[in-house]
Design a protein that fits this description.
The chain is α/β, with parallel strands linked by helices. Helix content is about 40%, strand content about 10%. The protein is built from twelve helices and five strands. The protein has a five-stranded parallel β-sheet, with helices on both faces. Helix 2 crosses helix 3 and helix 7 packs parallel to helix 12. About 35% of the residues are buried.
Length: about 240
């Protein structure tokens, strides 16, 4: 049986995670899987009440998270690399021991850039929706089992895509592939059914777009949430230097 390197990306929403999945999909040695634990997350939380097309998402994939872990994340693949794009907040009511069998990457983003984008899709978000606190929990869990995740800031990838992707691949123990920098516009067959709500920008792209800080006035009603997210974001970046 082919030994597959399993790369789990743990992202928050609106963090270029789909673009990164598309980048890995350009590799001939890689299979990509889009948010396999989304249905499980919806089935276990009240997020099903406000996420677009929640019923369709749950109908489209396995909602038993342990089965997803056993049959998808730890399943058999015909490629030497399997890349799983995950949202960190999908890790609810699960045994995290499978993280010891995967190579883990945490993808974060400055919350001042992320929050205005997120509220275009989900009104009145909470800390639990955004992944920042869960990222820290993942780091602490992995520390207890002697593993260290690679922590990546989406801002840095957008600023320096080639050098940052080369660095990421090196840290994952895989060769960098120039093909990761470009992809055809439009959807991919691996996209989840939720793509029609969330993937408009990446479907118009053919590569990583140049970073642009959000310069619009920040929504006053999100200031407290921004402060909470910023604190967690800065703590996470501190772990990146450990």
């Amino acid at each position: 049986m082919l030994k597959t390197r399993r790369i789990c990306l743990w992202s928050g929403p609106r963090n270029i995670s789909t673009a990164l999945m598309y980048a890995f999909a350009q590799r001939d040695d890689t299979t990509v899987v889009d948010e396999p634990l989304y249905g499980h997350y919806l089935s276990k939380t009240d997020a099903k009440e406000y996420h677009p097309s929640a019923d369709e998402v749950m109908e489209s994939q396995e909602t038993d998270g342990q089965k997803v872990i056993d049959e998808v994340i730890l399943g058999d693949y015909e490629t030497p690399i399997a890349f799983f794009k995950n949202m960190s907040h999908h890790l609810v009511d699960l045994n995290w021991s499978f993280l010891e069998e995967t190579t883990n990457v945490i993808l974060t983003r400055p919350p001042r850039d992320m929050l205005p984008s997120y509220i275009k899709h989900i009104e009145n978000p909470t800390m639990e929706d955004l992944g920042y606190a869960k990222h820290l929990e993942i780091v602490e869990y992995l520390k207890t089992v002697g593993k260290k995740p690679k922590i990546v800031d989406a801002k840095n990838i957008l600023q320096y895509p080639q050098s940052r992707l080369r660095e990421l691949c090196g840290s994952l123990g895989i060769p960098f592939d120039e093909a990761m920098l470009k992809w055809p516009a439009g959807p991919r067959k691996e996209d989840g059914v939720w793509a029609k709500h969330w993937y408009h920008n990446v479907h118009r792209s053919t590569g990583f777009r140049k970073y642009q800080a959000n310069k619009d006035p920040f929504p006053e009603e999100l200031e407290d949430l921004l402060e909470e997210c910023q604190e967690a974001y800065e703590k996470l970046l501190e772990h990146a230097g450990d």
